[in-house]
Write a structure and sequence with these properties.
- The protein starts with a helix and ends with a helix.
- A hairpin with a 2-residue loop joins strand 17 and strand 18.
- Strands 1, 2, 3, 4, 5, 6, 7, 8, 9 and 12 form a 10-stranded mixed β-sheet that branches. Strands 10-18-17-13-14-15 form a 6-stranded mixed β-sheet, with no helix packed on it.
- About 20% of the residues are buried.
- By secondary structure, the chain is mainly β.
- The chain is elongated, with a radius of gyration of 39 Å.
- The protein has 3 domains: about 150 residues, Immunoglobulin-like, CATH 2.60.40; about 100 residues, Immunoglobulins (Immunoglobulin-like, Sandwich), CATH 2.60.40; about 110 residues, Immunoglobulin-like, CATH 2.60.40.
- It is built from 3 helices and 28 strands.
- The N terminus is likely disordered.
- It comes from Sinocyclocheilus anshuiensis.
- This is Tapasin-related protein-like.
- Keywords: Immunoglobulin domain, Membrane, Signal, Transmembrane, Transmembrane helix.
Length: about 425
């Protein structure tokens, strides 16, 4: 069949319009964050003073602000505090993922701790002031901290920076430059035993050959231990876990040895380029799912008057907290299952690999009315999205009367045999006795 040319044109334009619409939807649904012009970014201001006892006290004040990307001289896009991030060799936007709605931004003041030195880039001054901008992905994909440099019109005099913060008014525009970023794409890690996770840590600085020191530390039970350190100035290396050659490219990721119970804790990646210091805390937790079993098959047949010990074992789980419950319901399910109250528990058993086991058991002596019920062991644990269930169906039967009849008949036969065998001998004995007399 030959399709008229007009119909071909209609089909072509219809198909083309559909493809174009899909492309437009795709573009509008996945905005490039590298081109974003601004982000809402509250400013956590500080009011610092020294009290009568000579101690420093800090009051934190949340203020409305935005983070705006552009060039020196740009006007603010919003009538609020604006941190204008101008072009530099470090652009935090290239590390962002997702959409603007998945980002949580926060700006804070940054103290150099009394260190006064000029940042080694053009235009930097000894009296520059610093801010940190931290952007977190709300679903835990990454955390990035950027140190922003702002040059004031006049230098401050005399005191440590946090005792004489520059005043920021409600509609001020502060022109800043991104000097350093520290990023992790593993803000928190949960793994099983004997795994070798890679804790991501990345940094970038706005000038070549920075005097950088990279460290990894582990904090657990209130104590910190150094796992690795490297200084580009001295070339000194302590510990292991980081590919030193990769540090020059800004990769300071740490690979753990096979995880064990003592691997849990908070891992801290820090990068210091004087006078700046950036770090990220990466909590690591271990988790192992329990293996659940019961000591009977899918169907349990019992005779009336007998009893049975039913055991539910949860093995190899971590951490310690686990919940085991026994309940029963009619065959086919019930909206209100009946939980058993006569359940006993063993103590937690600790294995050599650091995992635990627990048993929950009860004694069942059913009646005929219990036949057909479904008994279920349910195990809940933090490593499980949904509890694990193991079930069996109970069948209760009356004792078999056949054996009773067989026993009675056998007894009767045995008595007859005995009588038939003993009676002739008894009669013969009496005859012999009479003859003697």
């Amino acid at each position: 069949m030959i399709v008229p040319r007009t119909r071909l044109y209609i089909m072509f334009w219809t198909f083309g319009s559909l493809i174009l619409a899909l492309l437009c939807l795709g573009v509008s649904g996945s905005q490039s964050l590298y081109d974003v012009q601004w982000l809402p970014c509250p400013f956590v201001d500080e009011k610092v003073h020294v009290n009568e006892e000579g101690h420093t006290e800090t009051k934190y004040i949340n203020r409305e602000a935005v983070l705006q990307f552009g060039n020196v001289g740009d006007k603010p896009l919003h009538p609020t505090i604006t941190f204008l991030v101008t072009a530099s060799k470090v652009d935090m936007r290239r590390y962002l993922e997702g959409s603007e709605g998945t980002l949580h931004c926060e700006i804070r003041r940054y103290s150099t701790g009394g260190i006064v030195m000029r940042w080694p880039t053009a235009g930097a001054q000894d009296h520059d002031v610093w801010f940190t901008c931290t952007i977190r992905h709300t679903q835990g994909l990454f955390v990035i901290t950027t140190l922003l440099r702002h040059t004031t019109a006049t230098p401050a005099q005399g005191q440590v920076d946090f005792l004489q913060w520059i005043i920021v008014n409600d509609r001020d525009l502060l022109s800043t430059s991104a000097a350093m970023v520290v990023l992790t794409r593993t803000p928190s890690v949960e793994v099983g035993f004997l795994k070798e996770p890679n804790l991501h840590c990345q940094f970038a600085v706005d000038h070549k050959l920075p005097n950088a020191t990279v460290e990894w530390r582990l904090q657990r039970h209130g104590e910190r231990s150094k796992l690795f350190s490297y200084s580009s100035r001295t070339g000194k290396i302590e510990g292991s876990g980081v590919a030193v050659k990769a540090i020059a490219a800004g990769n300071a990721s740490f690979k753990l040895p096979p995880t064990r119970k003592h691997s849990e804790g908070t891992y801290i990646c820090s990068v210091m380029v004087p006078p700046l210091y950036g770090s990220h805390d990466i909590p690591l937790t271990l988790s192992e799912q329990p293996r659940v079993s019961i000591n009977v098959g899918s169907t349990l047949s019992m005779t009336l008057g007998k009893d049975q010990k039913l055991i539910c074992d949860a093995e190899g789980y971590y951490p310690l907290d686990v919940n085991i419950e026994w309940y029963r319901e009619v065959s086919g399910g019930s909206p209100t299952p009946s939980f058993l109250k006569n359940v006993l528990y063993s103590s937690h058993r600790l294995h050599q690999d650091g995992t635990y086991s627990l048993s929950a058991f009860f004694y069942l002596q059913p009646g005929l009315e219990d036949s057909g019920y479904k008994y279920t062991c349910r195990v809940s644990h933090k490593s499980l999205l949904t509890p694990i269930r193991k079930s069996f169906y109970l069948i209760v039967t009356e004792p078999d009367s056949t054996m009773w009849y067989i026993t009675v008949i056998g007894f009767i036969i045995a008595m007859l045999v005995i009588i038939c065998y003993m009676l002739p001998q008894y009669l013969a004995g009496r005859k012999a006795a009479k003859k003697r007399f």
